[in-house]
Amino acid sequence: MSADFTVEQKNYLEGFVSGIAALRTSRGLPPIGGAKGTRATSPASLPAPEGPDAAAHRAMARVEAAGKKLADAERAKREELGLDSYPRMVKAAREGVFPRGDDVLRWRYHGLFFVGPTQQSYMVRLRIPNGILTHWQLAGMADIAEAHAGPYAHVTTRANLQIREVPASDGIAVLEKLVGLGLTCKGTGADNIRNVTGTPTAGIDPQELIDTRPYALEWHHHILNERAMYGLPRKFNVAFDGAGLIAALEDTNDIGFQAVEVREGHGVAPGVWFRLALGGITGHKDFARDTGVIVPLPDATRVADAIVRVFIDRGDRSNRNKARLKYVLDELGFDAFLAEVEAKLGAPLTRAPAGAIVARPDAGRQTHIGVHRQKQAGLNWIGIVLPVGRMNVDQMRGIARIARDLGDGELRLTVWQNLLIPGVKDADVPLAVAALEALGIGISASAVRAGLVACTGSEGCKFAAAPTKRNAEEIAAWCDGRIRVDQPVNIHLTGCHHSCAQHYIGDIGLIGARVPVSDEGDTVDGYNVLVGGGFGPDAAIGREVFAKVKAEDMPPLIERMLGVWMERRASADESFAQFSRRHEVAELAAMFRPEMT
């Protein structure tokens, strides 16, 4: 390369040429310079990247121009984006082999998650906008799980479904059968915009400000059909909260659209708008923060698109631990970031002072379970209890039949790892409840069990340090037989730092940890214990009170913690979070420790 270039210029040109070569390869074009033996094109004369992948490739080139090394995932995406891997996935399925190396990432663009070495199988995660599916889709999912996977499904903390234990030969069959049901898995893993969540009672909620379904669905289809939205440096979450009775946890998302009512007299049109919150990632101890921006309801997708495009340009592509939107906001500041969003939009965003916003109604703590009246006269939703989000195929088919025969035919998944059967007539509620009980499913639970959330854990995820779902069940079984809690309490168990179960926002949060048990380095399953988390108006990040507690010791410890709260709370209505927040960590540890086994 010419000595006339500086080191930075040389790095830029090398990255630029590499990006162009990868783009041409992904499109089946010959290398730059033509066939072997022909003269190569001068870097200075190369055209700029074009097409929907161009912004991501330019961002990669800028990293290399600055003298940094691309993260391995970025290099893999430049060589072949996962969306382009389907023919090779089909070939691998015919050969009965799982992906290796970079292909593990690429297959996830289509919803196939190879979970080895924990299990030699795929987990398949769906995309269900606003968490709403039909009775026949759930019944069809049961058929697919029975034929190609373990005979069960899990409801996830993104109001979604996933099945597990899919062999290498069956992954493509699962994806194609799901399309036949009107479902898709595209973009549910890797560095993509994940399942779009919304208020689970959208359109039937008596206190909602808006029905979130059309906005979630519009964004869902935009993601699927705009290839540029797959050029992200890391995963991205978007949620729409309509101010209903069941929290959508939008403040834990990268973008949270919160329905708010704007008062008259503040220079903007009164009525219902979306308030824009950005940067939520509670696993990194940050909630989405109010930007002061309000968005007209019809503009939500357009604004979200512009935000994602700035993230594509600005996100860190050299350090995956710092590649989320939060870190772009930390670096630029909210004002500078929003200025770039406005440049993408070609128009200013609307600001509203805090005083212009009417206080939002609170969500309930346990409105996701039990029988609740809809806004439609004579109709109800029934929130059913699924222990740690699991249901077997017989239960799936039975729930689908109840929704078909006694409900409105839909099912609503929630971020609390359960589901709702809406549209049940007053007269049919007892029959629906009896039918659920015949399936071994209830609609009520103890305060501990009702607020229990657990990720997949080490039995199905290579990152997890403990079997969270099994341990969650052990905690619930122990506490239910020994202590009666008279207020809602959320206990979140997550297996690793990815915080899929959002341990930081639980009243009690447990994060998996290996606990040393010998001088030779032997370890057993265990947890670090946090207290005082919250969400919505009560948002707070939990504080660690114990480290490296054996999993076998967790049930009696949780019982002790709940008992201390019940005995020493300032009043009968003081919540566990309030109790824990008015004490220092050392005080809490001293109160909770004496009866640890």
Any key phrases for this structure?
21 strands, alpha+beta, 597 residues, five-stranded antiparallel sheet, metal-binding, 33% helix, globular, six-stranded mixed sheet, iron-sulfur, metal ion binding
Structure description:
The chain has 597 residues and is an alpha+beta fold. It has 18 helices and 21 strands. A six-stranded mixed beta sheet has the order 6-7-8-9-10-11. A five-stranded antiparallel beta sheet has the order 1-2-5-4-14. Strand 1 and strand 2 (122-125) form a beta hairpin. Helix 10 (325-332) crosses helix 11. The protein starts with 6 loop residues before the first helix and ends in a 5-residue tail after the last helix. Belongs to the nitrite and sulfite reductase 4Fe-4S domain family. InterPro entries: Cbl_synth_CobG-like, NIR_SIR_4Fe-4S, NiRdtase/SiRdtase_haem-b_fer, Nit/Sulf_reduc_fer-like_dom_sf, NO2/SO3_Rdtase_4Fe4S_dom, NO2/SO3_Rdtase_4Fe4S_sf, NO2/SO3_Rdtase_FeS/sirohaem_BS. This is NirA family protein.
Largest sheet: 6 strands, mixed
End-to-end Cα distance, whole Å, is 68 Å
Global outline: globular
Structural class: alpha+beta
Strand content: 15-25%
Q: Report the C-alpha radius of gyration, rounded.
A: 25 Å
Helical segment count: 18
Biggest β-sheet: strands ordered side by side in the sheet? 6-7-8-9-10-11
Low-confidence stretches: 30-46
Number of strands: 21
Overall mean pLDDT stands at: 91
The portion of residues assigned to helices is: 25-40%
